[in-house]
TrEMBL record:
<dbReference type="InterPro" id="IPR042100">
    <property type="entry name" value="Bug_dom1"/>
</dbReference>
<feature type="signal peptide">
    <location>
        <begin position="1"/>
        <end position="23"/>
    </location>
</feature>
<protein>
    <submittedName>
        <fullName>Bug family tripartite tricarboxylate transporter substrate binding protein</fullName>
    </submittedName>
</protein>
<comment type="similarity">
    <text>Belongs to the UPF0065 (bug) family.</text>
</comment>
<dbReference type="InterPro" id="IPR005064">
    <property type="entry name" value="BUG"/>
</dbReference>
<dbReference type="Pfam" id="PF03401">
    <property type="entry name" value="TctC"/>
</dbReference>
<keyword id="KW-0732">Signal</keyword>
Amino acid sequence: MTGWSRRQALGLAVAGLPLSAQAATETWPSRPIRMIIPFPPGGTTDLMGRLLAERLSARLGQPVVVENRGGAGGNIGADAVAKSPPDGYTLVMCSIGTAAINYAAYGADMPYKPQDLAAIGLAVRVPNLVLASRDSGITDFAGLLAAARRSPGRLNYGTSGIGGSPHACMELLKVRAGIDITHVPFRGSGPMLTELVAGRIQTAMDNIPSALNFVRDGQIRALAVTSRERVPLLRDVPTLVEAGIADFDATAWFGLQAPAATPAPVILRLGAAVDEVVSSEEWARQIGAFAAQPPGLTARGGSSPEAFADFIAAEITRWAEVARAGNISVR
């Protein structure tokens, strides 16, 4: 659907609302809003979601209450929102996994479809890190490649779960580097990082915000970053391109979605509130402390429901190709 036709559809949706629905949207929000985080506490989705919830509460005049509901690569929480009443009071802090990669990874087992969730706004983009345990003996990316090539399949890597951007990024990296490393999925970044620090897994891929303090404290090693450019907070960590993987550029992202039939006026108001938050200097400064970046989907550097919907559609196509190349599947 083109941008113009989507705007027309929103307008028609408003005009076609029954009087009772119009009255309800005019008073929205009149009670607390629930934001489902489809992953356990401590991961990047949780960190970014709680920051966004706090700022949306101030702009919407009602508390935005966070509820963690993890499992199945984020699908359990996202599906709960897709099947919730479309009244604007239940939202999901989606990830690149729940909104794009999982459609390819889970295939026919996906409990919801792209059209079951409405885009509200992109909140943040986050590069990933290639990590190693201090007990692994791997001190740089060249060392990881050498270890993987000496013993194909014996080296392992942890992620926050099947189908997320860390899993997809590492599988893409395996294809591009010609190495075989065994995936060990966890139920979130927190449990995975605990095992990496303890040395019970050798390597990992994770979003920067959840791994940052462990790297700074010297508990784990950062070998490379998946973005095209180095991250200011980790200037000594090379990009994968610098480490010899040509044209590698992969960034995770997180945003807000609602049940698909949520009234257009509510989606537009939520979208405006998200845009106001994420295009502000305060937001850039706050997420910058986690090496994260603002969305940059609109001219002012923010987001909108329309721009985010187009972005998600493009990402679904892009990561379906990666999933095929990397054989990413939970079936």
